[in-house]
Design brief:
about 200 residues, Rossmann fold, Arc Repressor Mutant, subunit A, 5-stranded parallel β-sheet, 9 helices
């Protein structure tokens, strides 16, 4: 597991927060404990991959209320809901609101770790997509209109000769532009360029 992922533990029960925090530490994950949904909203940072272990029944703001706020703010953080009530309709509502998993207390530590592993993988992938999107936008600003035009053709799989014919320029000119595009976009292949472009769509 990666240590640069933060696991937020949101539960009004101090004993639960403490035991879950120790469990996270035992597998090398960073845990941040919050005694309420409001405390989580004040603490959460989207600057690194994260997942959320969330108690569904809490005073003031429930886990479902927090999910609604996260959805409204378009904050995408994989959430694992924990409940001590075996409330099936509540669990269904949580899943519909976007929860990745629902576990009933008392739950098996390995079941929780398995769910966290899945959530962490999702969060890292989403975070990498965001990093790629920012990188693409920053690098693309340095392209000339002609370079952008050639890049758009390159990622469709067209070769230099085909692009030269379509644009009415020499193949050598296309190859020179291609070198500049690779340098400016900080990629080593057209496949990498295409991946970067697709992640920005």
């Amino acid at each position: 597991m990666q240590t640069d992922v933060t696991v937020y533990i949101v539960d009004d029960d101090e004993a639960v927060r403490h035991s879950l925090s120790l469990l996270m530490q035992s597998v090398g994950l960073t845990a941040k404990c919050c005694a309420s949904a409001r405390a989580f909203l004040d603490t959460y940072s989207a600057s690194s991959p994260a997942c959320l272990i969330l108690d569904i029944r809490m005073p003031e703001m429930s886990g479902l209320d927090l999910q609604r706020i996260l959805n409204d703010r378009r904050i995408q953080i994989p959430a694992i809901i924990i409940t001590g009530h075996g409330d099936v309709p509540l669990a269904v509502r949580a899943m519909k609101a976007g929860a990745m998993d629902v576990l009933e207390k008392p739950f098996n530590d390995q079941a929780l770790l398995d769910a966290i592993n899945k959530a962490v993988a999702i969060s890292i992938a989403a975070y990498q997509e965001q990093v790629d999107r920012v990188k693409f936008q920053e690098c693309a600003q340095h392209l000339s209109p002609r370079e952008r035009e050639i890049m758009d053709l390159l990622i469709t799989g067209k070769g230099s000769k085909e692009i030269a014919t379509q644009l009415g320029i020499s193949r050598k000119t296309v190859d020179v532009h291609r070198i500049h595009i690779m340098e400016k976009m900080q990629v080593r292949s057209v496949v990498e360029l295409a991946r970067l472009t697709l992640s920005n769509d």
